[in-house]
Design brief:
three-stranded antiparallel sheet
Length: about 160
């Protein structure tokens, strides 16, 4: 079984019947009354580390001059602060769907492997060698389609 924490958002959507039962964490930024969702994950440690790193990277302090902790609410309105919180599976799904919707030209390495008829490991090799274009752990659909149109060398898989 694949560790659900290691899956990308797109992979969670593919496996939503299992992913929906996970506990979901969100990291949000507040600044001047506006909330920006920065990430959604099922890994509590990662969410808390991300929020803490964002705060420490901004060198924020609270009114007492102490370093701000993640989730603190006493910062001035013009200074951004970050919170880490549990959200519902539906909210996580909407966020992940929105991210995927913003990038319809990206597919998972698993999906690329299925299209090419090779293993996910082979897709990783193709990405590392620059034969497939990628963005993080996702692969550009156009590069997979271009590879499908080209003829593989004798004795080589795509």
């Amino acid at each position: 079984m694949i560790d659900p924490i290691k899956l990308t958002g797109a992979e969670h959507l593919e496996d939503w019947e299992n992913s929906q039962f996970l506990t979901w964490w969100a990291v949000d930024k507040y600044k001047q009354g506006e909330i920006t969702r920065l990430c959604v994950t099922c890994d509590e440690r990662y969410a808390k580390e991300k929020a803490t790193n964002l705060v420490s990277g901004m060198n924020l302090t609270n009114y007492c001059g102490e370093d701000a902790e993640w989730g603190e609410y006493d910062l001035p309105e013009e200074v951004p602060f970050f919170r880490c919180m549990i959200i519902s599976a539906e909210e996580a799904h909407d966020y992940l769907q929105g991210i995927q919707g913003d990038h319809p030209d990206l597919i998972t390495q698993k999906a690329a492997a299925e299209l090419l008829g090779v293993s996910k490991g082979r897709v990783s090799q193709l990405v590392k060698s620059g034969q497939l274009e990628s963005c993080g752990r996702l692969v550009y659909r156009a590069s997979v389609e271009a590879r499908l149109e080209s003829e593989p060398k004798a004795g080589r898989p795509w």
